[in-house]
Amino acid sequence: MAVVGIDLGTTNTVVASVQGGRVHVLADDAGRRLLPSVVSFHPNGDVLVGYPAKERRLVDAKNTIASVKRLIGRAWSSEEIERSRKRFAFELKEGPGQGPLVVARGQEYTLPEISAFVLTRARQIAEKALGEAVDRAVITVPANFNELQRAATKVAGRVAGLDVLRIINEPTAAALAYGLGRTTKERIAVYDFGGGTFDCTLLDLSGNVFEVLATAGDSFLGGDDLDLAIAERMAEAFLRAHRYDPRTDPQAFERLRVVAESMKIELSTLERASTKLRELGFGVGGTHLELGFGMARDEIERLAAPLVERTFAVCQEALSVAQLPVTAFDKVILVGGSTRIPLVRRRVEQFFGAPPLDRVNADEVVAIGAAIQAAALTEVARRRSIPPPPAPRARRSSIPPPERDGDDEVTMATRIPSRIAEHERARTSSPSFRPPPAPRAANPIPPAPPTVPTATARLPSAKSTLPLPGISTVPPAIPTSPSAVSSSPTLPPDDVGATIPNPVHYQDVVRATMAQGPAPAPPVLVDVTPRALVVETVGGWCDVVVQRNAKIPCERTRAFTTSSDNQTVVQVRVAQGEDALFRNNTFLGAVELVGLRAAPRGDVTIRTRFEVDESGTLKVFATDLGTGKEAHALLQLVGIAATDTVEAMQARHAAARVS
Amino acid sequence: MPSTQGNDAASDSVFAWLACLDDLTYYELFGIAQGATPDEVREAFHVFCDVFHPDRHLGRPADERDAVSSIFKRGTEGYLVLSDLGFRDRYDAQLSAEPSSRGGAGPSSRLPDTHGMRRGLSNRPPPRLEDAARTPSARPFARRAEELLQRGELRQAKLQLVMANHKDPANGELEAALRDLEAKMAALAEAKEGK
Questions:
Q1: Which of A158, A358, A369, A592 is the most buried (most CB within 10 A)?
Q2: Do A453 and B107 count as a contact with CB atoms less than 8 A apart?
Q3: Would residue A192 show up in a list of annotated catalytic residues for this protein?
């Protein structure tokens, strides 16, 4: 069983795999390494994917689905769906739970199902190329994809019969492919200008650690937009010449876009390109209307300039989130087909003040990174040894241990003094397990009862749609420490670093081994949440629980109180975005807690815990502290298919003939 | 529940870390001095990630993975606090005030929360004034005030700020913003007279 990395792009999909320590981009029988992310439903019942489907786009645009990545994980009411309905020839309709459906040949498909066809084809290509079955994959998504888009992509993978090991961000994958930072410390920018989306991600690399500093993106900005602009230009020329507007016929316009795309590509190398537009319409007496159309490099650059400038606004946003000047970045990596445009290269070089890196094929770099990560995640028996902890400087605090199962065992762990020499030896040989050290103050942690938090905000009641006027988010107070009892004198702050009692801190141990050369371990990605995760409070405002750009995995807990008297139901509504108004953010879902103790408003405290795992997948738990008994509820993402639905999709998918 | 007997050497330091996690300051967690520079913090965090990132421990049994994950989450939290000047100042103050209590705010949140972050900022781009407003009715005024400020229409901005203060009385931040603006206007007027 092999693992692969899949770059599921808006326009093209690439699949790669690590074999014998080398990354291979896998090609189909014809030797093509790009698989167009186009799915066409043929009248004979076959589902065509890739180049055959792209050809069908010219004759059967209505049943040929492209650019589905722009739509996946979006609500029917979203602006993106609205724009796409005008833009694409295929039919979209509203499905249950706000999820858009694609209608082709009388069948309705969810968007993850369409993506799954592409993934299945990619899997077929990989299986043929590798000569073995492929069951697991790392799939990449744009860095600015939200929770719903990530979850939908994961569903697509599952429908295609793949165990999705991890969803990783495309720019991060690209950085992995370059293998930068293995020996040096550097800051790099990834400029990812693809067919449908633009992302700018800033990374800080050292040794084996890839830390994402910030990420920003525009999911409706890509090479497709330039194709469209050129096609518009062509249509106008056609209208002037023949008094017929090809835009009135979606099929004709589709053809124009294909011509426009190839012209765009030509103009990246040529100063001037021309083509003949045919079969767009009929003139008097049924004659075919034709038009010669030419374009010069500077003309296309004029069309592209506003799009390119928009990318730098996004870069600027990322820089301001990272709070770094553009000069702080040593390198800039180019990713995505649109970075082949000479204007883009020139402007990137101007903006970052550094020549862009393009050593790795811009179309394949993301899949290569995904394959590297896939290999890293499946390396058997991976367990890095952990050096002993430093002994805490002072006495035990009264802070209760974080909530988790198995706390008792933790305190029962035997404590045997460790010897550093022994530890060092163990570290350099094979991963092994050393006894933990004896902390200076070896009292077990007293399991403290949960204290009522100081910072609270009021949640709207699920029952009353009109929250009580005048009640707003209580400004959370500056955190106060729980009443800790301490009578012993404290060290002046300056001495803190010098007085760590453990003779050798794990940091020194690790640094010492690092100095001997880069460790053989694969790099570890420390990614971030692209958008803030917020909870709705009374008045339709937001309370930020996980801020934008938080390192993941992470966990945050916030407490809220009820907003009306005798409120027994509370709905914790969760969204993603930075807007202060809840409704302007992407609604993710709600956690409902029922059976609260009837009490005056503000008396019942609900604790919500947000957990974001390594994949960026969010879990929200709500616990009622008011009744004393624990009630848990789990966030259900809107529009994301439940397990049984996914199974049904899998069955239907498996029955389809994909080629 | 922990299947420690499955491992020949019982367990390495994972659970020892977990046991003393709540007693470590963020500085101790990263092995840095309280006066560490941002670069030192960053470097220490990278070393921390190299050791504790969950991806480094995929071969461990589930309970150990959970433990590693908890330790790592504490690290990301610590890094957030130490790499943010506003957070860090307050954390330091908290440490020296109550040396035996670590981490932060207690069970509800060990982090200074995000509203506090905005307030505690120093060397950062100014926070949105809108977020400082605590009542819904004050927010639009705060937002407009900020827009006007950016456009340099100080007098109009002042009116909006006065309204914001009226709608959200005794809000230190809004009051401070108004005072700042008034001072700025006074300075400008003086400069004009000087000419």
A1: A369
A2: yes
A3: yes
